[in-house]
Design a protein that fits this description.
Elements: H1 2-9, H2 15-24, E1 28-36, E2 39-46, E3 49-55, H3 58-72, E4 88-89, H4 92-99, E5 105-112
Antiparallel strand pairs: 1-2, 1-5, 2-3, 4-5
Length: 117
């Protein structure tokens, strides 16, 4: 009975589904960002979509951008962690700019990371 209840409330994760979700994502997104006090605020743009997100740190901002894109594409939350190594990542130069508090605004073009099995 306990196994039945566990199966009822847990969702199975499939590598094939993770790959299908990954291929569903756009190849590139554009993020225009600026600092608003302690927050980094960004407008995320890709074909047919424009939306905003914010965070307190550069690391958290990139995570929020990815989570927002995954949500727009209706990727189930349980796949977010699996897709984490395939997420949109800034170049080291773009990330350094984002971390530099003296830079008040900029733009990042994020490309989808290469698929790996």
């Amino acid at each position: 009975m306990i196994d039945f209840i566990k199966k009822l409330f847990s969702k199975e994760i499939y590598e094939e589904a993770a790959l299908a979700y990954w291929y569903k994502l756009p190849d590139e997104i554009k993020v225009e960002w600026f600092r608003d006090g302690r927050y980094i605020v960004g407008k995320i743009t890709f074909p047919g979509n424009n939306f905003m997100t914010q965070a307190l740190s550069a690391e958290e901002f990139i995570k929020m951008v990815n989570d927002a894109v995954f949500a727009v594409y209706d990727i189930p939350k349980e796949y977010f962690k699996i897709l984490d190594n395939r997420k949109f990542k800034p170049s080291p130069e773009q990330f350094a700019k984002l971390k530099n508090a003296s830079i008040l605004s900029s733009q990042i073009n994020l490309e989808k990371a290469l698929a790996t099995a």
